[in-house]
Amino acid sequence: MPILKVKEIELYYEEYGEGERYVIQAQQFINSHLNYVKDLAEKEGFHGYIIRIRGYAPSTLITEDLGESWYDVWAQDVCDFADAMGIDKFFYTGHSHGAGIGWHLCVNHPERLRGFFASAAGPHKKDGQATGGARMETINAAKSRETWEPYAKKQGAYCAKYFERVENDPVIGEEARAAREQMIQFWIDMPAVSALLNPRKPFPKCKTEEELIEVLKNIHVPTLMLGGSEDTISGPDLMVRTLRAVEDSKLIIYHGADHVDLPNRFREEYVKDIVTFCEERGLLE
């Protein structure tokens, strides 16, 4: 189990491929069997790292509330990880909260990024609620074991529903079964301290849409946003708003995909569209 000591914490990570075309993803969890970073490494010559962010085992668990600083801290952890690995510039990709980390990288550390591939990117709408509804469901369920156990089983099955649908596929069926089991087990085994973690929405200091848009206008990292037409958490309307604000950005919406299906169901399309985006902008030279 690869663990890297980074300053005062330890980060679990998985590595795919080799070479200097680095792409980093940071999430609370990504399955080890079917994911687009692995495909980018195995099929397109990227050197991929997927980091388990602080707060989620086997990375260091966090008992303190970092308030409005969670995404800034996670973004700094990505840069510290890259430094420890001897990586100067890298592509970053993330889904949902992982994309939130990417937006903070774009603002806080743009000099480190060759490009940003943002899946279900948002950022969340500034609607007066500091924390998104899906996150609050998890936090509320984690307040007792009686509510957590059925919630975790349900959430694990929901997050793994794409893998269940393709378990009989002659090419990826075995990997899909392993991915489904790993996803469900992650939710069942999640410690309460992780389930109760509340990072708020990205850019928590922005209280209105107007304030958020002004922050997004200052991002100049080449950005590809990948979204699902049926996503109720990071819907197409939010990403169109972001597209209008972020210079040198591109948006692709995949028909019929919701928030959890998106990066799994369209894994192969992600790889093709990411490579095309990089080629269009000369980012692979």
Strand-helix topology:
Elements: E1 3-6, E2 9-16, E3 22-27, H1 36-44, E4 47-52, H2 70-84, E5 90-95, H3 97-108, E6 113-119, H4 133-141, H5 145-159, H6 161-165, H7 173-189, H8 192-195, H9 209-216, E7 223-228, H10 236-245, E8 249-254, H11 262-265, H12 267-280
Parallel strand pairs: 3-4, 3-5, 5-6, 6-7, 7-8
Antiparallel strand pairs: 1-2, 2-4
Helix pairs in contact: 1-12, 2-3, 5-7
Pfam family, one: Abhydrolase_1
InterPro entries: AB_hydrolase (IPR050471), AB_hydrolase_1 (IPR000073), AB_hydrolase_fold (IPR029058)
Domain AB hydrolase-1: 37-121
What would your notes on this structure say?
- By secondary structure, this protein is α/β, with parallel strands linked by helices.
- It has a domain at 3-124 and 206-280: 3-Layer(aba) Sandwich (Rossmann fold), CATH 3.40.50.1820.
- Helices cover 43% and strands 17% of the residues.
- The protein has helices at residues 36-44, 70-84, 97-108, 133-141, 145-159, 161-165, 173-189, 192-195, 209-216, 236-245, 262-265, 267-280, and strands at 3-6, 9-16, 22-27, 47-52, 90-95, 113-119, 223-228, 249-254.
- It has an eight-stranded mixed beta sheet, sandwiched between helices.
- The longest helix has 17 residues, at 173-189.
- It starts with a strand and ends in a 5-residue tail after the last helix.
Shape: globular
Instruction: Report the structural category.
Output: alpha/beta
In CATH, the topology of the domain at 3-124 and 206-280 is named: Rossmann fold
Task: List the secondary-structure elements in sequence, H or E.
Answer: EEEHEHEHEHHHHHHEHEHH
CATH architecture of the domain at 3-124 and 206-280: 3-Layer(aba) Sandwich
Helix content: 40-55%
The CATH superfamily of the domain at 3-124 and 206-280 is: Alpha/Beta hydrolase fold, catalytic domain
CATH class of the domain at 3-124 and 206-280: Alpha Beta
Rg = 18 Å
- Strands of the largest sheet, in order across it? 1-2-4-3-5-6-7-8
Main pleated sheet: 8 strands, mixed
How much of the sequence lies in strands comes to: 15-25%
What do the pLDDT scores average to?
A: 96
Number of strands: 8
Unreliable residue runs: none
Number of helices: 12
